[in-house]
Amino acid sequence: MMDRVIAILPELNQAFLETLLMVSIALAVAILIGLPFGILLFVTDRGLFLENVVVKRIAGLIINLIRSVPFVILLVFLLPFTQFLLNTTIGPLAASVSLSVAAIPFYARIVESSARDIDKGVIEAAIAVGASPWMIIRSIILPEVKPGLITGLTITAISLIGYSAMAGTIGGGGIGDLAIRYGYYRYDNTIMFTTVIVLIVLVQLVQYLGDLVARVVSKR
């Protein structure tokens, strides 16, 4: 068993790095787009300082539509867009397109949920002293939800690791692709077992680091 694992170690290392690349890109997009989207969902809600029923409903509809599509179907649905964007539909960069689209609404809802825990009285006090919407978001909302943002990012990362394994079924690269090519198609149970262990270790590591950072941020 060990001889077989050692023999495929270069491919395993490459698959691991491809998985990290896919997940990192999707997480970056989730922060850049999902975070503002989540804040928008919160501040346009009823009774908030940027209340806007139309914007709230449209943004919520878009997010719900994307979240309602199973990731495997989303992968196939976005193939034309991926081809247009990158001129290819295979490899980790191509898979990161679908992962990013899936990550945006997932993280946005977590951000919105975290923001709902903020004491509304603090926001009302800021409005009373003349704080602008941007000042409230920057100085009150974001600092207050910081631990929740870290925890949400951890949950999103773990979900993306699972999604990245699915991306391997259509040539997305990563550990999932390795498991399919060597473990499933060649009936190599050793490789299948090894890839599962690697994914478990990766998830546990991400969870540990996420919890650690969230605790540090909470104490500040």
Automatic annotation (TrEMBL):
One Gene Ontology CC term in the entry: plasma membrane
Transmembrane annotation, as ranges: 20-44, 65-86, 92-110, 122-142, 148-170, 191-210
InterPro entries found in the cross-reference section: AA_ABC_Transporter_Permease, MetI-like, MetI-like_sf
Keyword Nuclease found: no
Membrane topology: Multi-pass membrane protein
UniProt keyword list: Cell membrane, Membrane, Transmembrane, Transmembrane helix, Transport
Signal peptide segment: none
UniProt subcellular location: Cell membrane
GO biological process terms, semicolon-separated: D-methionine transmembrane transport
Domain ABC transmembrane type-1 residues, every copy: 16-210
Family (UniProt): Belongs to the binding-protein-dependent transport system permease family. CysTW subfamily.
Name of the featured protein: D-methionine transport system permease protein
Organism of provenance: Terribacillus halophilus
